[in-house]
Amino acid sequence: MNETNIDDFVLRRIADRGGFLDKDLVEHLASREGTRLTPLLVRMKGCRFTAPAQDVLYIIDKLEMSGDYCRDVSVPLESAAEKKLRDFR
User: Fold this and answer.
1) What is the rounded distance in angstroms from the CA atom of residue 41 to the CA atom of residue 45?
2) Where are the domains of the chain?
3) Considering only CA atoms, which of 32, 40, 44 is closest in space to residue 6?
4) CA quadruple 68, 73, 76, 81: dihedral, nearest 10
5) What is the pLDDT tens value at each position of the chain, 89 positions in all?
6) Cβ(35)–Cβ(5) below 8 Å
7) Disulfide check for 30: which of 54, 64, 74, 81 has CB 3.0–4.6 Å away?
């Protein structure tokens, strides 16, 4: 897995959002071979977890069906993606 294949355009969008990702950014990461396994931190009302970008929206959807809601999605600290994002800023 090479989770540092995030292009500069996406890094700029994530940096501009303070490290948080919107649905479009998650879909973008999930759709690309080089970034689909990038771990993302998801904070819900009742739990928090990390999951590969390719699985995040599916898991959120299932948890929301049970009555939970998503607070935010971000790049976890100390991940290779976060280190690249820090270097990018």
Assistant:
1) 13
2) 8-88
3) 32
4) 150
5) 344 567 888 888 888 898 899 999 999 999 999 889 999 999 999 999 999 999 999 999 999 999 999 999 998 877 777 777 777 65
6) yes
7) 54
